[in-house]
Amino acid sequence: MSWIHLVWIFLLIACPIVYTGSNQQSVVIFGNIAKIFSLFVAGLTLTFTTNAYTPGESAKRAWTFLATGAWIWLFAQLIFAHYRIVLNVNIFPNLADLFFVLGYIPLFAGLVVLIFDFRSTGLPMGGRTSYIVQALILLAIYSAMFFAWLKPLLLNNDEPVTKFLNFGYPTVDFLLVCVTSVLIRISWVLRGGSLAKAYIALGMCFFLTGVGDLIFAYRPIPAIDMFFFSAYFVLGLAGFYQLRMLRQ
Amino acid sequence: MEFSEKVQKYLAPLLGQNTARIAVKTFSEKIGKRPENLLRQDMPLLAQSMHGMLKTLCGEERADKALKDISEL
């Protein structure tokens, strides 16, 4: 177990105490600091991983994209914390959302590069039919999500920007989950090896972010921060596992 | 122990048992051999053929080390 696991578990254990026994402002401060710290950890481990590769390697490009995404999200989170803690206002959407949206671009690119890299190795990735079945299953899940949870968000009386973000965040998260589902399949091929751990962690990160964003669209309660800081710690663990594999 | 098993054993902690087996099979065939027919003298060529895959997955440094280790098995 690494120190990242320990800090993450400690924060998760602290959550019930903080969320039940503290005032509103303390809860906001706890959530924001946990998210900033976890994103800082993610940014650092992903950057160390990037630096462990030799310049020019395609894997370096993939991990650089992921690290960039984590740093952009950290910047977004700092702006968000400034609004919530320093200015003591709760505006949605705000400037932080611009950077949260921007952060998705390098994260998505990083995942795609990882998949194409794996494809270039010549190792088996599964048949075409199995990918068609996987795509159909994911489409069915998204359709169910759309009609159950996302469509009502488009039909309510919110501002267009709010609607766009409430609908957009879970949708983009789902896209990332789709891409990581390919990585998880690769992890299954690589099961038992050091490489699988990093890919599984990436998949878990985007799944947790997606669940958090979906709950946030309906009930923006402070306890959702648990999903977000957990997702960011898991993103940090992905970098940590990859780095450990490179150095072992 | 056959040479294919030795390579598998070397790669397993990194790629997993299953992928290590597949990698040995795939790259043995690339050098025109069946895994069970691999000989000591095939190791440098097999290692060389695996280098690109290992470089992509594990980075150049580890791939170079694997190239050396497998060649010397």
Write the layout of secondary structure elements.
The complex is a heterodimer of chains A (248) and B (73).
Chain A lengths: L2 H19 L2 H29 L5 H29 L8 H26 L7 H28 L4 H30 L4 H25 L6 H23 L1
Helix pairs in contact in A: 1-2, 1-8, 2-3, 2-8, 3-4, 4-6, 5-6, 6-7, 7-8
Chain B lengths: L2 H13 L1 H14 L12 H16 L1 H12 L2
> What is the 3D form of chain B?
globular
**Judging from the principal axes of the Cα atoms, what is the shape of chain A?**
globular
Low-confidence stretches of chain B: none
Order of helices and strands of chain B: HHHH
- DSSP strand tally of chain A: 0
Unreliably modeled segments of chain A: none
- The topology string of helices and strands of chain A comes to HHHHHHHH
Given the structure, what is the number of helices of chain A? 8
Most extensive chain contact? Answer: A-B, 24 and 24 residues
Quaternary state of the chains: heterodimer
**In terms of structural class, how would the helical and strand content of chain A be classed?**
mainly alpha
Q: What percentage of residues of chain A falls in helices of 4 or more residues?
A: over 70%
Distance between the termini of chain B: 11 Å
Radius of gyration of chain B: 11 Å
The tally of structural domains of chain A comes to 1
DSSP strand tally of chain B: 0
> Portion of residues in helices of chain B?
over 70%
**Biggest sheet overview of chain A:** none
Quote the average pLDDT of chain A: 89
